[in-house]
Design brief:
This protein is an alpha/beta fold and about 280 residues long. It is about 35% helix and about 15% strand. It has one domain: Alpha-Beta Barrel (TIM Barrel). Strands 1-2-3-4-5-6-7-8 form an eight-stranded parallel sheet, with helices on both faces. The longest helix is centred in the C-terminal third of the chain and has 16 residues.
C-alpha cells in the first residue's frame, strides 16, 4: 500500500540572509527546524513512501526549500506551494506554475482577521477563476469561512479544492473540535471538494489510539467517500509518533483494504496528478 503524507512542513531558521516576515514568529510549530533530509529519515522509520511539502506560513511566500527537496528527492516529495493570492499581478505566474519541477498546486491560508476580511471584500476574487483556468489544485486552511469556500466550489466546478485538517480550528480539542465537522459535511456535495484528514491527533487530549475520534473519522469517510479523504499528519504538530499516526488509520479504524489504499495515498496522488 502506497503511504503518502498529505501535509508536512519543512523550514529553515530565521537569519539575516533568509529572514521570516515579522508576523511569522508566533506561528512556528517548534523551535528546531525540520529539514528535508531529516524528514526522509523519519519517513523511512515510519514506513512512508512519499510526502507533500507545504511551505509554512511563518516563512512567508517562499517555496525554495520545498522545491529543492522535490528536486533532490523527486520520488519522495512534491510541493503545494505558496503564492500571494491578494495580488492580482500574480495571475501571470499561474500559467507556468506547475511547470516548476515537483509543484502540484497552491496552499491557501484564510486563518486570521486580515484574510477573512479580504474574502469578505472580494480581494481574492481574481484568484479562483485564474487558478481554475490554469488547472491548479488548491489546499485551503479555512476553519471559519466554509460557506464562502462552498460558494467558490459551486461557481468554479473545475477548481479542485482540499479542505485542510477537516476545517478544525487549531485551538479546538475533543468534542469541541469534532462538533465543528457539521460545518464541513455540506461541502461533500461538491465533487470538486475533498477533505484532508490531517493533524487529527493534535485535536485530542486522549492517548493513542484516540477512541473518541474514530466515529468522527469514519463519518467523514462515509460522507466524502474514501477517494476524497486524504490522510496526513502536519508532522511537526503531532502529539504521537509518526508511526502511530499511520497505524491510527491502517490498524485502528476498521477501514477496508480498498478504503485504506485510497485514503493513505492513492487518492491524494490521483487528485493532484502526482504520478505513481
Amino acid at each position: 500500500m502506497l503511504i503518502v503524507d498529505a501535509q508536512v512542513h519543512i523550514w529553515a531558521s530565521h537569519t539575516p540572509a533568509r529572514p521570516w516576515p515579522a508576523d511569522g514568529f508566533g506561528r512556528v510549530h517548534c523551535a528546531e527546524p525540520l529539514t528535508a533530509d531529516a524528514l526522509i529519515g523519519r519517513m523511512d522509520e515510519a514506513g512512508l513512501d512519499r510526502a507533500i511539502i507545504v511551505p509554512p506560513s511563518w516563512e512567508g511566500e517562499r517555496n525554495d526549500l520545498a522545491l529543492d527537496a522535490a528536486r533532490r528527492y523527486p520520488d519522495r516529495f512534491a510541493v503545494m506551494g505558496r503564492l500571494d493570492h491578494s495580488n492580482p499581478a500574480n495571475a501571470a505566474r499561474l500559467a507556468d506554475w506547475k511547470q516548476q519541477p515537483g509543484m502540484l498546486g497552491i496552499r491557501v491560508t484564510f486563518t486570521g482577521e486580515r484574510f477573512q476580511k479580504g474574502l469578505a471584500e472580494g480581494v481574492f476574487d481574481w484568484f479562483w477563476p485564474a487558478a481554475e483556468k490554469a488547472g491548479i489544485s488548491l489546499m485551503i486552511s479555512a476553519s471559519d469561512v466554509l460557506p464562502v469556500i462552498a460558494g467558490i466550489a459551486e461557481r468554479h466546478p473545475g477548481l479542485r479544492i482540499v479542505i485542510d485538517h477537516l476545517a478544525i480550528k487549531t485551538t479546538a480539542r475533543d468534542a469541541e473540535a469534532f462538533a465543528a465537522l457539521d460545518r464541513l459535511y455540506p461541502l461533500a456535495k461538491y465533487p470538486n471538494v475533498a477533505a484532508k484528514a490531517s493533524a487529527l491527533p493534535s485535536f485530542s487530549t486522549e492517548p493513542y489510539p484516540y477512541p473518541a475520534m474514530h466515529p468522527h473519522i469514519r463519518r467523514v469517510v462515509d460522507t466524502f467517500g474514501p477517494a476524497r479523504v486524504f490522510w496526513g499528519t502536519d508532522l511537526t504538530r503531532l502529539q504521537c509518533s509518526y508511526r502511530q499516526a499511520v497505524t491510527l488509520f491502517t490498524e485502528e479504524l476498521g477501514l477496508s483494504e480498498s478504503d485504506k489504499e485510497l485514503i493513505m495515498g492513492k487518492g491524494i496522488c490521483d487528485w493532484l496528478g502526482w504520478r505513481v
